[in-house]
Specification:
Layout lengths: L1 H30 L16 E5 L10 E6 L22 E6 L10 H6 L5 E5 L5 E2 L4 E2 L6 E5 L5 E2 L4 E2 L6 E3 L7 E2 L4 E2 L6 E3 L7 E2 L12 E3 L21 E3 L7 E2 L12 E3 L7 E2 L12 E3 L21 E3 L10 H4 L12 E3 L13 H8 L3 H8 L2 E3 L3 H16 L5 H10 L16 H4 L8 E3 L17 H7 L3 H13 L3 H18 L1
Parallel strand pairs: 2-3, 3-4, 4-7, 5-8, 6-9, 7-10, 9-12, 10-13, 11-14, 13-15, 15-16, 16-18, 17-19, 18-20, 20-21, 21-22
Antiparallel strand pairs: 1-2, 23-24
Helix pairs in contact: 4-5, 6-11
Length: 505
């Protein structure tokens, strides 16, 4: 009997062990999260929903946009592991829809996606980019981290990313750029830091960005610049510093930027420029200083930027701008792609502005000619004011004194291109240039050269020889103007000048 009972007992024991193992497996399965397809999340309570273009099949998605909902994702959330279901994603974007929904960078996801080229996070509550947050991500080419409340960038935040070409950190709360934040980024060409709270740029903050071409620091609170701020940026071509708190720019401030072509300094509080502020910028083509507080320009300011062909000094407090100021760059302003804007200053209509007559007829640029034709200055000669007021009304009724001349010139000049220059003349330019003239203001080009007063106390040799011509020179100059215009325009000009010539004999 015992011989028959033993196998039965053993069999019962085996069944018990198997049941125990099955129970353990069930418990284990409950604790391990199931890997789901990130492109096919059906749970309405999920904190993340992703939309994948073209295909939602496993490992088929290449472009994915994810929305973070339901307040609060943890670093340990098992959902991050689900991105292994789509390891071929090349473009990934996170948009946070709930305040506080994401307060860290999901670096786990970045490690899973070895083919990722474009990565972005928007509207999160990330307070700080920690050291080595973005490190060794060799496939990423473009990264956008806008509107994320980022206040601090730690050292080596962005490090060893050999293919990163564009980095955007606009509209955050960054206060300081520290040395070695951007490290070993040999391919980076564009760095955007617009609309932050940057007040300090440490020396060498960009020291490793040897191939950077564009740097945007506009809409910050930068009040001081030193040449050491720009160490390493020898290849930079465009620097945007508009809408900061700059007041004084010392000599050699930009001397490290050997290849800079475009410098934007509009809407600051600049009232002093050192004589050699722009020295070293031998490649500079465009300089914009509108809406500052400049009263005067030191002699020789443009000697170091003899390639300059686009200059904007609108809406400062300048009282004089002579041919001597312009001499180093005068010939450049004749070119088709050039421009010079001087509106909105406090210029008197005197001989120091007589160079405008000459440049108007030598310039190939429509922008230059239009700007000069509309240029307004203060003219305080009661004897002539009534005459000018009458003839200005006549000119307006004839649809612009120089219109026929422009039509002829434009077709005569071949088109040229300047791919790098950004066409970003201030949005307010058109409206500002149409401001109504005050009673004592006159259009400069409608005042003959010989009638422009030349204050004795400020005359220079250049002023006398160029802007205060003799009677014979004035006659030759009038003939030159008449000869350069069409018959119709010439008639208007003769009608305009005749009463004035009577006044001067």
């Amino acid at each position: 009997m015992r011989a028959h009972r033993f196998p039965a007992t053993l069999l019962l024991l085996l069944f018990a062990i198997e049941a125990l193992d099955a129970n353990r497996r069930k418990q284990k399965e409950k604790t391990l999260p199931a890997i789901i397809n990130i492109c096919d999340i059906n749970d309405r309570d999920s904190k993340v929903h992703c939309y994948c273009e073209h295909s939602q099949d496993i490992n088929e998605a290449e472009k994915t946009e994810c929305w973070v909902f339901n307040g609060g994702m943890l670093k340990t959330d098992p959902l991050w592991t689900s991105f292994t279901s789509q390891i071929n994603i090349q473009t990934l974007a996170f948009n946070v829809r709930a305040d506080g929904g994401l307060d860290f960078v999901p670096t786990k996801v970045l490690l899973y996606l070895r083919k990722l080229k474009n990565f972005s996070i928007k509207y999160s509550s990330i307070p700080k980019i920690e050291t080595n947050t973005f490190v060794n991500l060799t496939s990423i080419q473009e990264m956008t981290l806008t509107k994320n409340k980022i206040a601090i960038l730690g050292k080596y935040s962005f490090s060893n990313m050999p293919n990163l070409t564009v980095l955007t950190l606009d509209e955050n709360r960054i206060t300081e750029l520290v040395t070695d934040t951007f490290y070993e980024l040999p391919a980076l060409q564009k760095l955007y830091l617009t609309n932050n709270n940057i007040t300090v740029i440490q020396d060498g903050a960009f020291g490793h960005l040897v191939n950077l071409l564009e740097l945007e620091l506009d809409r910050n609170n930068i009040s001081e610049l030193r040449k050491e701020c720009f160490d390493g940026l020898a290849n930079l071509k465009r620097l945007d510093l508009r809408r900061n708190k700059l007041a004084v720019l010392k000599s050699f401030t930009f001397t490290e930027l050997w290849n800079l072509q475009e410098l934007l300094l509009d809407y600051n509080e600049i009232y002093i420029l050192g004589q050699r502020t722009f020295d070293g910028l031998s490649q500079l083509r465009k300089l914009s200083l509108s809406h500052n507080k400049l009263v005067t320009l030191v002699a020789g300011l443009f000697e170091g930027v003899r390639g300059l062909s686009a200059l904007d000094l609108r809406f400062n407090k300048l009282q004089r701008f002579t041919f001597d100021n312009l001499r180093p760059i005068y010939d450049n302003l004749k070119n088709k792609n050039s421009f010079i804007f001087l509106e909105g200053n406090e210029f008197e209509c005197d001989c120091h502005l007589a160079w405008m007559h000459r440049l108007r007829h030598e310039a190939k640029s429509v922008k230059v000619r239009t700007s000069l034709e509309n240029f307004v200055c203060k003219f305080n000669n009661p004897a002539l004011n009534s005459h000018f007021a009458y003839f200005e009304r006549s000119v307006i009724s004839s649809n612009n004194l120089f219109e026929a001349d422009d039509k002829r010139d434009i077709k005569d000049y071949p088109e040229t291109s300047d791919d790098f220059f950004h066409e970003e003349i201030d949005d307010n330019y058109v409206e500002e240039s149409k401001l109504a003239k005050k009673e004592n203001e006159r259009t400069l080009l409608q005042i003959p050269v010989e009638l422009l007063p030349c204050p004795q106390d400020v005359k220079t040799v250049t002023d006398r020889t160029y802007t205060y011509p003799s009677q014979n020179e004035a006659k030759d100059y009038r003939n030159l103007i008449l000869a350069s215009m069409s018959t119709t325009v010439g008639v208007h000009l003769c009608v305009f000048l005749f009463p004035l010539l009577l006044l001067i004999g």
